[in-house]
């Protein structure tokens, strides 16, 4: 169990979401380490902040005993489906699961403690937090993406309501525009159609048509595709995949006008919904990472910053070449990798982590991740 101490710690983990807690549990396998988890809100704060209607799109199912750990679990001996009794958890439910996991594994979390700055000093880090300073030899950034909503840059974009906010989910009638057609956009379109709205989704990448490959990071989830088919059958859903929105304006009568790159005008009866994703959300860790050409943080084979040794990245912002670790079942494969690298750096025995490998929750050879399904 982590010991609370004001002296220099071996590791500070920032964020008590699935990535931070999962990494912390992996660290418990290494004896004698001092570390802590720092969280600006409460355990699972992102899930507590999810709009009330938001649910998981990755299903939970307790296949653990047969080597198929629940997709949303952060440790092979746990299963949200088992503890919550649902297959698509909502935000508060999943936060409850995370709280139970933290309690079971004795993970001490310093809640209501926000990290404002991380200073890299020779062989150590000094963290300025809302509750005083911390010193550590290594740092794991697990601050998540939810606090970094991606916003388009066209004129009037600020009039849109981001998919991460409650107003985007408030039931609407009349004509609704959704900008962005990947998971969040289609989720919201189906949701508003369920409330009787007439919805237009605009996305020049037309993700709803993607059929290439079998990686769910590039395809709509089966549940989303199923809901999309039902929404299309209402005749109240229009998908525009040949244009992008170039301008939004508020009209005097309370309606909104959107212009597209092909010159079409769309009039909507409520503020357009912006479902254009999230950034990498590095927050105060941002200066400690170089960026890939696509803007995502650059890490080495151990998920360690290429510019600041001793700083690691855990969570949905993780990228290796073409691989996106944007789901729990993907990024959890790296908890043991980070824990082992921290242990190696500090000269500690990490052999107990082999349990994670035998439980199928440690991938260190990433060349195996690209397998395509034959049918
Ligand atoms: C709308 C939405 C739906 C999603 N659905 C799924 C899904 O169905 N399945 C799936 O696998 N993935 C899903 N994802 C991806 C998803 O983000 C994650 O799987 C998960 O939340 C990422 O976990 P995390 O621990 O990296 O980040 P988070 O869960 O966001 O946890 C980060 C924590 O860090 C804290 N924090 C941030 N900054 C600081 C700071 N400066 N100081 C202290 N604490 C800080 C936050 O308060 C938060 O509690 C979804 C994402 C979104 C946005």
TrEMBL record:
Keywords attached to this entry: Membrane, Oxidoreductase, Transmembrane, Transmembrane helix
Transmembrane segment boundaries: 12-38
InterPro entries the record matches: Auxin_biosynth/cation_transpt, FAD/NAD-bd_sf
One family name in Pfam for this protein: Pyr_redox_3
Gene3D superfamilies: FAD/NAD(P)-binding domain
Any GO MF annotation of the entry: monooxygenase activity
PANTHER family from the UniProt entry: FLAVIN-BINDING MONOOXYGENASE-LIKE PROTEIN (AFU_ORTHOLOGUE AFUA_4G09220), NAD(P)-BINDING DOMAIN-CONTAINING PROTEIN
Name of the protein in question: Thioredoxin reductase
């Amino acid at each position: 169990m982590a010991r609370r101490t004001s002296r220099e710690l071996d590791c500070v983990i920032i964020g008590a979401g699935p990535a931070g807690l999962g990494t912390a549990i992996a660290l418990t396998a290494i004896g004698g380490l001092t570390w802590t988890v720092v969280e600006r809100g409460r355990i699972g704060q992102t899930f507590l902040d999810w709009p009330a209607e938001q649910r998981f799109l990755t299903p939970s199912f307790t296949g653990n005993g047969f080597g198929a750990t629940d997709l949303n679990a952060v440790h092979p001996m746990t299963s949200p489906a088992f503890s919550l009794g649902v297959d698509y958890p909502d935000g508060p439910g999943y936060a409850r699961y995370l709280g139970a996991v933290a309690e079971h594994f004795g993970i001490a979390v310093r809640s209501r403690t926000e990290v404002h700055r991380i200073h890299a000093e020779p062989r150590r880090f000094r963290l300025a937090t809302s509750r005083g300073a911390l010193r550590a030899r290594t740092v794991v950034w697990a601050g998540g993406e939810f606090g970094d909503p991606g916003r388009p840059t066209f004129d009037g974009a600020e009039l849109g309501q981001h998919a991460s906010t409650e107003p985007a989910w408030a039931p609407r009638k009349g004509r609704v525009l959704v900008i962005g057609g990947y998971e969040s956009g289609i989720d919201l379109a189906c949701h508003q159609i369920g409330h009787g709205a007439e919805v237009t989704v605009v996305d020049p990448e037309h993700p709803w048509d993607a059929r290439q490959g079998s990686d769910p990071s590039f395809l709509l989830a089966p549940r989303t595709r199923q809901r999309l088919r039902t929404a299309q059958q209402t005749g109240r859903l229009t998908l525009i995949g040949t244009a992008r929105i170039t301008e939004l304006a508020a009209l005097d009568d309370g309606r909104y006008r959107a212009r597209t790159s092909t010159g079409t005008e769309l009039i909507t009866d409520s503020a357009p919904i912006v479902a254009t994703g999230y950034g990498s959300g590095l927050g105060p860790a941002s200066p400690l990472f170089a960026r890939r050409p696509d803007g995502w943080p650059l890490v080495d084979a151990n998920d360690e910053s290429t510019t600041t040794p001793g700083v690691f990245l855990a969570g949905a912002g993780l990228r290796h070449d073409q691989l996106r670790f944007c789901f729990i079942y993907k990024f959890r494969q790296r908890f043991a990798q980070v824990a082992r690298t921290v242990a190696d750096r500090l000269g500690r025995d990490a052999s107990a982590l082999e349990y994670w490998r035998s439980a199928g929750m440690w991938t260190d050879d990433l060349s195996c991740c690209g397998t395509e399904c034959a049918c």
